[in-house]
Specification:
Blueprint: H1 4-23, H2 31-48, H3 52-70
Helix pairs in contact: 1-2, 2-3
Amino acid sequence: RRLGAPGAVSACGIWFGLVHVVLDLDSLSALPALCAMGTASAMLAVRRGNLSASIWLHVGFNFPVVLLILL
């Protein structure tokens, strides 16, 4: 609540990107896209008032990569 919705959305987007890069340092070049994904997910959660749509967005973002790995 200290940051307000815009600050929280920005912080979550950056945090999302950084956590994913720390877990895989080879993906540093993807940091801007990951931060954008995290920001979009946070915006969706704020607008909807719950996390379900954000979770499905994350699943949809990861699904093509999972398919490529499995195929």
